[in-house]
Design goal:
Layout (H helix, E strand, L loop, with lengths): L2 H34 L4 H17 L1 H10 L2 H24 L5 H29 L5 H29 L2 H20 L14 H6 L2 H6 L2 H17 L2 H13 L5 H23 L7 H15 L5 H29 L5 H29 L2 H28 L14
């Protein structure tokens, strides 16, 4: 295996381990908070809110740092801090010294590290692979990420069942340590200073004007953000309600359904990387994804539910990979971190607000019709972006792309 290929797979493996550590920590952290604050739902909500505050206020800063400084160094620092925080959790829980205030602080710092780690990692991949290979390696990234997201909660459940919370946090710290070692082993040669944005332009960079000057990038970021706002809470809220209330099925079926969605996501990520396609436009896949969501709720038949759950996972993976590929292929390297962090901020805000929107809809209609309606809205959002794009092509209109328009 060539040294260049080793670097790619080291980054992919580190990404999967970091995701496994994140998902494992999230599960155990929630269990710990519930145990400490049983009966005090307001404080539970407050701690969870504190955990996600960095996404809203530090997300874009992570992109600025990723574009200005060495991306490998950013990842190493983030992993080192997360390793230390996981060890701190291990110590606090082992000696029964955990408190709500300390846990909230650690959660805040851990999420802050994610804000700096993720844009650096996403912006590094295009520097390690050829542009023609981005789709293939992004699909492998998605497979690695999904494996980590699935494995984390499973491992957390096993450890908590047969052991103690501190053992789960100790295992969590090891995932970050191994991820740190893998990132350290990557032979990464960052762009020269001429390849990165200068300090003066860094301050003047305007993300809004940059996206307005890049039509494909504009569609990718804003169509995805609007779609996430519409349907993000469906899987974690509407589907469980639909199965247990509307279908009157046991809770175990929820686990099977979500498991099939996860399996479909793995298969879809692998399939996207194997199929040579020029259709890397996320708007098309968002349209399909929205229709798949609506179709899942059409019938109360068990086999219909399970079949469409798998299809939903496949279409979701297509969205994820196409979205990342589109940003990487349509963004200049020196602005890559900012665009990723800006999108992450929009997406995380959308996820937070999506629960509120779903709650309002559920007050009016049942889970079944909520799923159909929200899936249809997602499809309509994507269809609207597609129609506008087609009309612009028909009228031969163009968007400004001069670099000076990105500065304010």
């Amino acid at each position: 295996m060539k040294k260049r290929d080793v670097n790619k797979y080291l980054l992919i493996a580190a990404h999967g381990l970091a995701k496994m550590g994140n998902s494992l920590q999230d599960v155990v952290f929630i269990l710990l908070i519930v145990g400490l604050l049983k009966g005090n739902e307001f404080q539970m909500g407050l701690v969870i809110t504190i955990q996600f505050i960095p996404y809203l206020f530090l997300g874009y800063l992570g992109g600025v740092v990723a574009d200005r400084y060495n991306r490998k160094t950013n990842m190493l620092i983030a992993d080192a801090i997360r390793f230390s925080l996981a060890l701190a959790l291990t110590y606090l829980v082992f000696f029964n010294r955990e408190s709500v205030a300390l846990l909230a602080c650690i959660a805040f710092l851990s999420t802050t590290c994610r804000c700096f780690y993720q844009p650096a990692q996403q912006a590094m991949l295009p520097e390690l692979v050829r542009k023609a290979d981005l789709t293939k390696y992004n699909s492998r990234f998605q497979v690695s990420e999904n494996l980590g997201v699935i494995a984390g909660p499973l491992i957390a459940g096993v450890i908590v069942t047969v052991g103690e919370y501190w053992q789960a946090f100790l295992f969590d710290s090891m995932t970050y340590l191994v991820s740190l070692i893998l990132v350290f082993l990557i032979n990464y040669y960052p762009l020269s200073k001429n390849g990165r944005v200068s300090d003066s332009n860094e301050i003047r960079f305007n993300i809004f004007r940059y996206l307005n000057g890049q039509r494909k990038l504009f569609d990718t970021v804003y169509c995805s953000a609007a779609s996430i706002l519409a349907i993000s809470a469906i899987i974690r809220l509407v589907i469980p309600l639909y199965i247990t209330v509307d279908m009157n099925r046991p809770p175990e079926l929820v686990a099977w359904t979500l498991g099939l969605i996860a399996a479909g996501t793995l298969f879809g990520a692998y399939l996207f990387g194997q199929v040579e396609t020029k259709l890397n436009t996320p708007t098309v896949y968002w349209l399909v994804y929205g229709l798949c969501i609506s179709m899942l709720f059409v019938s109360n038949n068990l086999f219909w539910l399970l079949g469409w759950a798998f299809v939903l996972g496949v279409s979701g993976a297509f969205v994820d990979v196409a979205l990342i590929c589109s940003i990487q292929k349509n963004t200049e390297g020196k602005y890559m971190g900012k665009v990723f962090s800006y999108f992450s901020t929009l997406a995380n805000t959308g996820e937070a607000l999506s629960g509120f929107i779903v709650g309002v809809v559920l007050m009016v209609v049942s889970a079944k019709y909520s799923g159909v309606l929200l899936g249809f809205i997602c499809a309509c959002i994507a269809f609207g972006f597609i129609i506008v794009r087609l009309l612009e092509r028909k009228s031969h209109s163009t968007w400004p792309v001069e670099s000076e328009k990105y500065m304010s």
